[in-house]
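= Paired protein data =
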Amino acid sequence: MDGLSLTKEYIDIVKEDEEKYYKDYKKAVDKVAKSNAKYKGKPIPFLYQPMFFTQEDIDSFNDICSTLISIANKVTAKYIESPQYRKKFNYSKLLEELILIDPGYDINIPVGRFDLFYGGPGKFKFIEVNTDGTSGMNEDNIFSKILLESESMKVMKQRYKADYFELIDAWVEESLKIYNKFDKKVDKPNIAIVDFKETGITAEFEEFKKAYIKKGYKVEIVDPRDLKYVDGKLYFEDMRIDLIYRRIVTVEFIEKSKEIPDLIQAYKDGAVCVVGSLRSQIMHNKIIFKVLHDEDTLEFLSEEERKLIRNHIPITKEFKGNNGILEEVINNKDKYIIKPTDSFASQGVNTGRDFSQKEWELLVKECWENDYIYQEFIDPYTRPFVVFEEGDLKVKDFKLNIGIHMYNERFAGVYTRISRNNIIFGREGYFSIPNMLVR
C-alpha cells in the first residue's frame, strides 16, 4: 500500500457512480464556501480528492525534518559566531542586529513549512524553506474534515483507517511549550497574533485565536503598529502582551520597521517573547540554498547532512556577477527558474518554460543584479486527480507541492497544493488539497 495505489483506488470508487459523487462534490463545495477557508475574502479552491499518505511517508517526513533542523541549527550558530559568514546573507544592519539578539529561548525555528516536490520516500527535491509567517494550517484542516465526511471517503473508511493532521490546537500546544522556555515567562501569558492588517490571513488567525481562548488565555489579533512599549512592558490597548505569535514575514517587518518602533524596542530589550524570533530568517531567505552548497558550509556539517543537500536541494546561485551567468540563463531558458531572494506567495518567481525566448530575455535582464537567485528547473512529481467539469468527471495529472509542517522542531502535518502550471506555490492557479494519513 502506498499513496499512488490508494489514489487509484479512490478514483475507481468515484468512477463507479459519477452522478452520485458529483452531487456529493457540489455539497462539499457549498460547505467550503460557507467555511472560513478563505484568502483575501474568497474561498480557496479545492478538489474532491485528498492526498493520501502512509506511515512510510510520515517516517520519511520525520527524517527530512530532523536532518534539516540539524542543518539549520548549525548554520544559525555559525551565523551568530562568525561576522565573515554573515556576509553571505547580505542582510541590512537592522536585520542583522535583530537576528543576533537572544530571543530568550533555545529554538531557532519554532514553526516552519518545508515545501517539496515529493514522489515518495527518498524521491524528493526541496522547493523552498518557509520559516517565517508560515500559513495553510486552517484551510487544510477545514478541507480534510469536509472530505472525511464525503460519500467517497465513507467507502475508503470501510477499508482503511483514515485521519487528518490536526494543525491548529497542535500549534497552540507547541507555542506554549516554547514560551515556557522563555527566560522572563509569566504564569499565564497574554497573547497577540501579530501581522500587518493589509497582509494577514484573518480567517486563519481567528481559528488560532479561538484555540488559545479555549485553552484559557487572553488573546488578540494585533497590527504591530498598534503595540505600545511603556515602562518596560508591551501593550495592546490596556492589555499587557507577554507572548507574540509572529506572522509578519521578515521582509515586511524590515520594510516597515519605522512604523513599529515600540515592537522593535521591546524585542531588543527581551521584554516580550516573540515566537518565532528573527533568527528564523536565516533559513527562510532563498539565498540559503546557495549558502548550503558552499564548501565552507558543507565542511561543518555531517555526512548525512551533506548528502541531503547534494541530493535534494537544487543548485542555486546569485543572479549577478559575470555576464556569462546572464548569457547562460538567457540562452537556456528551459533549464532555469529565477526568484527574488526574499519574497512570499511566489511573488516574482518565474520559470523559463513559461515564456517565449524574447519574453524571457527581457524578464531576466530586468532581474539581473537586482537581488535575485537562479536555480535549476526541476520537473515536479505528478498524481492523478478527479475533476468535475460542468458535471462531467475527468481524471487529470497535476503537479504536486507537498509542504511539511514542522512545529517546535518536529513534524506536525502536511499541506498540499497542486496545479497544471509550472509555478504551483503561489496564491493563484492552484488547488489546495486535504491530506490524510491512511492505515
About this structure: The first strand starts at residue 38 and ends at 39. The mean pLDDT is 93. The chain has three domains: 3-63+110-165+391-438, 169-284, 315-377.
